[in-house]
């Protein structure tokens, strides 16, 4: 609820992360080409959302586990022939399209991770980042994605004041 409090339209939201100079042109996609002007309002709302989020009843696609989409309801894995890193999504989709004989004109791909975040990630606390890692631990481990530094456990060598209980670990039984 507080994620959208005070926002009645997409324009209300845009004004929190995009400058008036761009907005008055009507070229809203240009907002994705420049850093966010978030003063901490959006990152604060995001942090509150993560704080209250249990992961048991997901309603946000960004905190949805991906690994669960890679298996049939029986638990058997889908046959996967290729997996791509979302960081290079535009280039990778172009590669897939080329293999299939489809042409995607330059500039037509807008859903890759090249788009600037809407809020200043540097304003998100390490505790919030660690909670996201705990919620998404299954994906990190099953998809063999390297954990962000802030989320890694100290393997028992935590120093005085460290909170190793919040660390995420991936372990494989032999």
What fraction, in percent, of the residue positions are helical? 25-40%
Mean pLDDT: 76
Straight-line N-to-C gap: 45 Å
Low-confidence stretches: 155-161
N-to-C SSE string, H for helix and E for strand: HHHHHH
Number of strands: 0
Shape label: globular
Taking all Cα atoms into account, the compactness measure Rg is 19 Å
What percent of residues are in strands?
A: under 5%
**Alpha plus pi helix count:** 6
List the helices and strands and how they pair.
Layout: H1 10-17, H2 20-23, H3 41-52, H4 89-99, H5 126-135, H6 137-142
What features would you describe in this structure?
This protein has helices at 10-17, 20-23, 41-52, 89-99, 126-135, 137-142. It has 6 helices and no strands. It has 174 residues and is mainly alpha-helical. The protein starts with 9 loop residues before the first helix and ends in a 32-residue tail after the last helix. It is globular. The model is unreliable at 155-161 (pLDDT under 50).
């Amino acid at each position: 609820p507080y994620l959208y409090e005070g926002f009645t339209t997409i324009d209300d939201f845009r004004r929190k992360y995009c400058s008036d100079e761009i907005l008055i042109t009507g070229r809203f996609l240009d907002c994705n080409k420049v850093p966010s002007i978030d003063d901490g309002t959006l990152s604060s709302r995001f942090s509150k959302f993560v704080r209250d989020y249990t992961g048991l009843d997901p309603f946000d696609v960004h905190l949805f586990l991906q690994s669960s989409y890679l298996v049939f309801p029986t638990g058997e894995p889908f046959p996967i022939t290729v997996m791509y890193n979302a960081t290079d999504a535009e280039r990778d989709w172009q590669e897939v399209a080329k293999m299939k004989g489809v042409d995607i004109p330059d500039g037509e791909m807008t859903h890759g991770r090249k788009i600037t975040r809407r809020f200043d990630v540097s304003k998100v606390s390490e505790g919030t980042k660690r909670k996201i890692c705990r919620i998404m631990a299954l994906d990190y481990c099953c998809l063999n994605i390297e954990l962000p530094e802030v989320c890694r456990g100290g393997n028992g060598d935590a120093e005085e004041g460290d909170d190793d209980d919040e660390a995420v670990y991936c372990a494989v039984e032999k």
